[in-house]
Amino acid sequence: MESIPAVVAITPRPLVMVCDDIDSIRAIIRINLELEGFDVLEAADGHEAMSHLIDPSARVPDVIILDAQTPRRDGWWAIAAIRAHPRLAGVPTVLVTASTTEHDRSAAALAGFDAFIGKPFDPVDLVDVISRLAADGRPEIPAQ
Question: pTM of the entire structure?
Answer without folding.
Answer: 0.90
